UniProtKB/TrEMBL annotation:
Coiled coil: none annotated. It is an enzyme of class 3 (hydrolase). Its cofactor is Mg(2+). GO terms for biological process: trehalose biosynthetic process. Belongs to the trehalose phosphatase family. This is Trehalose 6-phosphate phosphatase. Its EC number is 3.1.3.12.
Length: 254
């Protein structure tokens, strides 16, 4: 029964046992799936979407993927009806059957994007990724461009620091609107059914996930760093599969 679902103890967190009445809040890149050479190249294990769907059902819908990615990417990689927050919390779809909520946030001037394009033209291997209210310069394929990308993005944000933040990501620099974060996404989800009243368990690997972890702890739950708690995305997927197994820990009451 959904109300009795229990998560097994995360293997790498001494002292933390099984978790009753959980809400699962999962980062995508580097957490559910391994990091790849480019954003389009991530490989989603074929059984992952179905596993998340099954867990979401067990949790009466209290499972969300909370990612820096736009929702259209998440829908592409995980084509199942589960709650999602995209663009670092700038778009939120708590109910997969309803349209996404889009808080009123600023978008960067077109001139900023043009300057990013100019940098990409100078550094083959770099690329720009667009978000609803910002964009990213990726330099994983051209590491020598990292300092120039940082300098450019920092100078753009300095033109309007009240409206935008500069985010350091994994081999990437991102401009994000102020007022959106994984923390705001967790807060919004945990304040409404079916998440409200449950114990939030946020799992992520990156510095932007720390905002989500902090809010999960504030709501009486857990912020788990993937590397410590599960070792790798494969370790996390194994734990999720154990939780979802019909005779596994998920089916018992603590
Ligand atoms: O919040 P997340 O789900 O962890 O997303 C964070 C960013 O992930 C993506 O970029 C990162 O992953 C790419 C694929 O593995 C990798 O090529 C890139 O170097 C990483 O920075 C995504 O493209 C971004 O939009 C997300 O914000």
């Amino acid at each position: 029964m959904a109300g009795q679902f229990v998560l097994p103890a995360p293997p790498g967190v001494p002292g933390l046992g099984s978790i009753g009445r959980p809400a699962l809040l999962l980062d995508f890149d580097g957490t559910l799936v391994e990091i790849a050479a480019t954003p389009d190249a991530v490989r989603v294990p074929p059984d992952l979407p179905g596993l998340l769907h099954r867990l979401s059902d067990e949790l009466a819908g209290a499972l969300a993927v909370i990612s820096g990615r736009p929702l259209k990417d998440l829908d592409h990689f995980l084509p199942v009806p589960i709650a999602m927050a995209g663009d670092h919390g700038a778009t939120l779809r708590p109910d997969p059957a309803e349209p996404a909520l889009r808080p009123d946030l600023p978008a960067p001037p077109a001139a900023w994007r043009t300057r990013a394009d100019a940098l990409v033209a100078r550094h083959p291997g770099t690329l720009v990724e667009d978000k609803a209210h910002g964009f990213v310069i990726h330099y994983r394929q051209a590491p020598e461009a990292g300092p120039e990308a940082e300098a450019l993005m920092a100078s753009l944000v300095a033109e309007d620091p009240a409206a935008f933040d500069l985010l350091e990501a994994r081999m990437a620099w991102e401009i994000r609107p102020r007022g959106a974060s994984k923390g705001t996404a967790v807060e919004a989800l945990m304040s409404r059914p079916p998440f409200a009243g449950r114990v939030p368990v946020f799992i992520g690997d990156d510095v932007t996930d720390e905002e989500g972890m902090a809010v999960a702890r504030r709501f009486g739950g857990h912020g788990l760093r993937l590397q410590d708690a599960f070792g790798s995305p494969a370790g996390l997927r194994d734990w999720l599969a154990r939780a979802a197994a019909p005779s596994g820990p998920g089916s018992t009451t603590p």
